[in-house]
Amino acid sequence: MSELILGIESSCDETSVAVVKDGKTILSNIVASQIKSHRRFGGVVPEVASRHHVEQITRCIDEALSQAQIEKNGLTAVAVTYGPGLVGALLIGVQAAKAFAWANDLPLIPVNHMAGHIYAACFETALQFPLLALVVSGGHTELVYMQEDASYEVLGETRDDAAGEAYDKVARVMGLSYPGGKEIDQLAHMGEDRYNFPRAMLHEDNFDFSFSGLKSAFINLTHNAEQRHETLSQEDLAASFQASVVDVLASKAIEAAKTYPVKQLIVAGGVAANQGLRETMKRKVAEELPDTNLIIPPLRLCGDNAAMIAAAGHVEFAKNNQADLALNACPGLGF
């Protein structure tokens, strides 16, 4: 008999509900984006995000079940993101999942949002262990080593800004609309790396990251140019900034994969949608790790979505990791 898991994701500014069969087949994956509401503020406003989740969560559940052509009594379990993320946003998803699980007498599975990003790769191909995951999003930049399912060892992480956060702040300085990561990526392909921004911690003997110095260098360069009434090329600024970020991310990931030999290298999270990063990782892995299989989820599964939460929930359910109705949001959750 097939296992059907209802996944619920509400950690930031996407309300998403999905139905996934046996941890690998997406029957539905509804995503209600809030980008238009937050764009006028230049970033996510937590209170606004929470209100949108309240408005959308029930509709998304109904739509996911309808699209999957599944009745409530046909489900096996409910998986929900309980952290990390915005506490108010997380609470909406957690409470909805608890109510749905209780009303339909279903097991409740707690899922780490970052684990969800990693398991988005299983929709591309079966995961083989040991593997290494470079998880890059708006709030996190981590290198995670996995010896088996649901086993996470953080080899390195950002000591300050996450890569996605740096993209958003630089985009704001450049006057680009929110979210600016995609626009920077597009501009970068039309420019050249002329400004030689710093590659922080690139040659240090660890797998940690730091992007606050790069952000400061970018702001200082643009502000100094403004004071001198100079006009800088938007394309070259974007290309130089992106080259610095991608160089550090790719180099650290490749070095970690050499230190901890793995069968697969996964690039996951919202920043995994960046074409510059995808192209560089494909080239570097082919050149330096010919025996390692690079897996990057399709663009539609790089951002926050509930299918990845259901996929991670499938693994947790197999390990009998269930929660009771005391489950609460954990905004600072780590591995």
Please give the structural blueprint.
Elements: E1 4-9, E2 14-21, E3 25-33, H1 35-39, H2 46-68, E4 77-83, H3 87-103, E5 108-112, H4 113-119, E6 131-136, E7 141-146, E8 153-157, H5 163-173, H6 181-188, H7 212-227, H8 234-259, E9 264-268, H9 275-288, E10 293-295, H10 306-318
Parallel strand pairs: 1-4, 4-5, 6-9, 9-10
Antiparallel strand pairs: 1-2, 2-3, 6-7, 7-8
CATH class of the largest domain: Alpha Beta
Amount of helix? 40-55%
Largest sheet features:
5 strands, mixed
Structural class: alpha/beta
Average pLDDT value? 96
Q: How many beta-strand runs?
A: 10
Quickly count the helices.
Answer: 10
Strand order of the largest sheet: 3-2-1-4-5
Q: Which runs of at least 5 residues are low in confidence (pLDDT < 50)?
A: none
Overall structural domain count: 2
Proportion in β-strands: 15-25%
- H/E element sequence: EEEHHEHEHEEEHHHHEHEH
Query: What best-fitting shape do the alpha-carbon axes yield?
Result: globular
Output the CATH homologous superfamily of the largest domain.
ATPase, nucleotide binding domain
* CATH fold name of the largest domain: Nucleotidyltransferase, domain 5
Q: Write the CATH architecture name of the largest domain.
A: 2-Layer Sandwich
